[in-house]
């Protein structure tokens, strides 16, 4: 009779899993969500490079401890200790942002959405700029980022990071200025970059009336879920490209209808931010 093959590692894993309860799973999920939100907070800042450096140092420290490299281990431990003391100073802007978002109830929700009043203000500013440029036949290409990140597009342009105003938008696209010939990228309530290059569409069935701006707008919309506004330099016609399709001859009402859902999320159920807002109102009363 053959003896059953035993795998000590499997039995240990099985015994370990047997000790995991529902609260342990919830605990791990909460920690995972918090770590992901911290990463989201840092990913577009210089601080993410410092975090990667700290992770490398911690891994090297663990390896040196396992290999019993006492001199290197002692040096790395002292370095890591000093770095952790310096962290509040190095990460002061990021810590401030995180505390502000927690205080506003935005740490666990999408910060790109704003309340209805702010959303209407943003839509008004964009609408005003777009149709002013349309009247003056100033060519423009405005990319509004949605769920799919377009960092590779942003990296082709010049970083701006400024609050959206109609004056800012018009200034970017004034002819014969350094940034007018590319696309401006909007993320949430801010313009993050200008003078960006977009990929051209490979669709050969498009009308010959559509120029490079329109073809590049369609090309980007085929690759991500961004909404792109185009103002024709020749005719002043306002168009919108999304999901590989283009809609031309937009007016004030149709453009506003397309823009408003990008900045304000309609919510049927009460969310964490709403609870915080209600609590703060009661506190004031």
Give a verbal description of the structure.
This protein is α+β, with helices and mostly antiparallel strands and 285 residues long. It folds into 2 domains: 8-103, no CATH class; 116-263, DNA integrity scanning protein, DisA, N-terminal domain (YojJ-like (1), CATH 3.40.1700. The chain contains 11 helices and 7 strands. The chain has helices at residues 8-18, 22-42, 47-66, 70-90, 92-103, 116-135, 151-154, 166-172, 212-223, 252-263, 272-284; strands spanning 140-144, 158-163, 183-187, 190-196, 227-231, 238-242, 245-247. Strands 2-4-3-1-5-6-7 form a 7-stranded mixed β-sheet, sandwiched between helices. A hairpin with a 2-residue loop joins strand 6 and strand 7 (245-247). The longest helix has 21 residues, at 22-42. The radius of gyration is 26 Å and the shape is elongated. The termini are far apart.
Instruction: Indicate the structural class.
Output: alpha+beta
Question: Briefly, what CATH class of the largest domain?
Answer: Alpha Beta
Annotated CATH architecture of the largest domain: 3-Layer(aba) Sandwich
Note the total helix count: 11
Tell me the series of helices and strands, N- to C-terminal: HHHHHHEHEHEEHEEEHH
- What fraction of residues sit in β-strands? 5-15%
Residue windows where pLDDT falls under 50 for at least 5 positions: 266-276, 281-285
**Please, what is the average pLDDT?**
78
- The count of strands amounts to 7
Rg on CA atoms, Å? 26 Å
The CATH topology name of the largest domain reads YojJ-like (1
The strands making up the biggest β-sheet line up spatially as 2-4-3-1-5-6-7
Number of domains: 2
Given the C-alpha coordinates, what overall shape results?
elongated
Largest sheet: 7 strands, mixed
Report how far the terminal alpha carbons are from each other. Answer: 81 Å
